[in-house]
Task: structure prediction
Amino acid sequence: MSQPEGKGSGALEVKFVPDEEVLKHIADGAGIKVRKGKTQLTVSVKRFVKKLENISDDEAQEILEEKNYVAALGICAQDPVGNGSSVSGGEVYSFQTPKRSSKMAELAAELAQTPGQSVAPDHSECPEKTAKTPQSSSNFLWAEIAWKCNLILLFAWQRAVLRRYMFLLLMHVFSLQLQSKKKEYVATTPYRLRKRLAAPDPYLESESEYSASCSEEEDEEDQKEVSTVLSGRKTPAKTKALSTPPPRNTLAKKIKEDKMSNLVEEYFEAHSSSKVLTSDRTLQKLRKRRLNQQTLHDILKKAPLAYAAEIKELNQQHESLFSKWMLQLHLGFNIVLYGLGSKRDLLEKFRTSVLQDSVHLVVNGYFPSITVRSILNSITEEVLDHIGTFRSPLDQLEFIIKRFKEDSSLELYVLIHNLDSQMLRGERSQQILAQLSSLPSIYLIASIDHINAPLMWDQAKLSLYNWLWYETTTFSPYVEETSYENSLLVQQSGSLALSSLTHVLRSLTLNARGIFRLLAQYQLENKDNPSYPGLSFQDFYQQCREAFLVNSDLTLRAQLTEFRDHKLIRTKRGADGVEYLLIPVDDSTLTDFLEKEDEDV
Amino acid sequence: QQVQEDLNKQLFDNLVSFLRRSHSEFQEKTTEWTCRMKSREIPTAALVLGVNVTDHDLTFRSLSEVLQNNITPYIALLEAKDCPGIKNLMQKLMGQLMNCYVDVDSLEDEDYVQVSQNRIRCSMTSLTNWYETVTKKTDSETPSKKRTSSSRDWQSPPVVVIFKDMESFTTKVLQDFIVISSQHIRELPLVLIFGIATSPMIIHSLLPHSVSSLLCIELFQSLSCKEHLSTIIDKLLLTAQFPFKLGEKVLQVLINIFLYHDLSVQNFIKGFQLCIVEHFYSQPLSVLCCQPVDAKKRVNSLSHDQCENIRKLPSFRRYVESQVSEKQIALLTADNFLKEITQKLLEDLRVYHENYVSVLRCLHVFTSSLPKYPLGKQIRELHCACLENRVWETEEYESSLQLARMLNKSDLVTMLQQCVEIFVSSSGNEFDKTVEKLKEFLTQFQKLEAEAFQERDVSVSSQKELQKKTDLYHLQKTLLELKESRRSKKLTKFEMLRFEVVDYIDSLVRNYLVPADHKTLHEIAYFNTASVLRGHLNAAPRIALHTALNNPYCYLKNQALKSDGGRISNKAPDICIVYKLHLECGRLINLVDWLEAFSTVVMAVEGPNADAASSDQVDDIIHARFIRAVSELELLGFIKPSKRKTDHVARLTWGGC
Result:
């Protein structure tokens, strides 16, 4: 039920309502109920109406409906009077009163913020329902009240409170009503409610589920009229919930805009328990073949790039800055580009259009085996034509600095794609690059992508870099940059590992191959065991003996040493001091390997 | 373009000279203190520099320069990043010392260079040997050639080793070095200088007592960076020398970056340079922003287009509108007339600046000593306030005038004297009258003083009268009378004069401290686009990323992407959708669920035409797109693969941030 409302009020300002107020709200709701069991019926109704008049004029229609509601309240309140409840309602009532007036005003204020359309659907049903009330039984009236309370509560919170509280409270209201109905009004309802609320239940489902469950509960005990109304209401809510993404987004926004304290609370809640509440589905069950890099690339090539025109426009905007970049580079600044989207093409364009005639060096930082040393090497070897090696990168750097200082005609443009890549983000490499960039005749232009990239630099490095920041959001896909990343979804090609495996094993004796095979089979048998430590040496020895592969543990050890030298196995000592053997190759490769072996044999 | 390079150079010269000045006193101390060097302990200077690490480099460079010129040729500057171990430290030290020796007199010790290059033995003994031979040689060969007289007092000039950033050295290295060198202190007069960024306590926390007892530490405090900043602002902004000015917002941005981010004077200067570059790059009329002599020439050589540019300036338009109609036409049509007027206006602007600065200083003299500093303690705050809008309309100005009206006489007199000094020293010739007026005030004050003497006599006598009458009733009565008279007496002469002075200052302020953007042609000299500056200096890459992901419409101006209040349409780029979906998850994300959600969204877009026939292929494409988007998120650092559960990735961010 709150689902459509939440959708309608997506643009609304979210207000944080502290827990006390929530409590008050419920207390109000409960108070209304309790009052019904009281003899001061007229007073309560009058007050209620008075409060309602606080509501601003433009909500006149709503007031009318609210009055209907009050009328309904009055009618049903007469009912229990006959039951003669023994409640001394005075204290409860007096307890409530001081807070009431401001409460309603607040509610009104919130209502005033609500655009008409989101409110309207709820109330459109009220009149017809209230129209039925007089004739219907007390049972029905109760449902009515429950429904109304529900509405009021929702009004107050639809935009505000944590989802879980909302659900929780509503649940309580309902259970309360059920109870009170059966037990003929328990006087202490508000207090009890408070107590219950003191222990909130953190594990709750999403809002959509809650609304469904609420209405179901109502269904259980209500007559057909109400349930039909509800079902009419329920179905759209459910269908909305089914078309997952948009409502999810609104929810996300709600959560995001919640107050900081909530965030903090949630953070610790989520991080305190090590339990992971995700489904256990795996990609393997998806019956979809894993794509390898090449096919992925091909498929993506076929898929058209969305918003190509806009992206092009963005790029043109950035390209107009090229001359400015040049000027600023020459004035001793270095330029760093940030923003979503690959900046590789942009830099390439910069290179081809401006740097055509000057000495420049392009560093593909995203390349997984790039090192500072290779950058320095290419400078010394390619740019400075120096042949010879250096003891350490620092020496090399010193040499470069010296050369550039001696010869002021030397100029070098360095373009670094992804300065924040795995290989370059280390402190020392950044230090070296910073020192390099601080040379007046080396012009550095780099791009960063990682969200935490600026954390790489401390004050000293920043001043060495002398950055000028440029936001260049391009939205173009990171094709090159991600192609080296070992994505989970992309099938590891594994061909390299496999070929090296077979290659090495082919040079070994038949016995040695058998030994390895044993180990591989054992490992594959245990592949579902996540805490598989490896095969212990003693067990392995036993197995090998049984297969007539070795005759003493010394021969086995000699064999294992050979494996280890070729990095075919890894040994580690367990907690009990036993040596465990493991093949550091993933299971699929291992399976392939075994299959191949079988073919050979 | 030439102008700006000149400006840059001047800027740096200014800074360096300033730093040098700030350290000259320190040098003097060092020399006299090294005199009483003790035999066993290593004399050490701990130089507390403050947290603005970036400026230290410059400081140390100038320091070593000064030391080199005045005291000793043997200086080694060591940085923590070069010295991960004691061996590297020694290497570095020897290299620097011997090289520096070569630099000084590069005649005959190539063998030493070789020594350092071959790194035969980088030990303390070789160092002392080297030192002995060097000093012996220099003593025997060229005792007269030896530097200044101060260093000749020394039989052997000390070897100064500067540790630039003491905190980042490994303790072990430092300890070892100190212990070793203390063994050789007799042969090798070593002086250490520690650069400290935090507090002097760090020495004792880094070094154990046994080591620190080997040091004879003296503490020096360098000037705080705030003072550096005010000097720079004083020299660069509050002079009429530089034609280039900063607008209020820009200055505010720069000062904020300084105060809240790095406290680095160097960065402030960098920002200033950037302002200059931006100004000259973006404002076509900035050619006129130069020294007055050049400006005249340049105005005369303006092309027609440039004249048009002038006409387009909003401030110039305002000026035109205020003229009579014939003049308006002339201004808008005749280039020559325009040039003439422009020259005049530029001259006006220059004069305005001159007057502005001196009046500003004058006002600062008055306001800086008021309680609670309604207009700010520093002159830069006052400057900002004046640039922002008419300062005399602000509440703070009101209250500061109120307070100024309550100043006592001696303060007032000293302030007036200071003001007179300021005006006399300023080059503007309009201030003759002002100076006269102020002097007149001063003489009046002196006169008052003389009168006051007499008055005091009177009051004393009345006091005596009071003492005579001892009964309570009379006492009360006289007191009441006194009170009455004081109230009715209105104002004393002094008070009258004080009011006059304050009013006069007020009138000065109203005349001269008009905010710059009320002046015609201020666009030529003032740089005012603060947003650009902030974007380049104080960028927020993460915010840019988030906006791009949350609201792609900011960048891609496509109606389909337009959305209200946080929701993004399902037509957004893949990465945005994937990002949005991942916001929903906790710490771990199931890839399958994620993929399913993604394909639901994407399918919703493709709608009914994606029918079953081609579904397999579509699926592949969606799958591929999903893979791409996920690996892009991984590159951006939002997720990383997790081993905790199969086919799960871990989120690296929390909530929506």
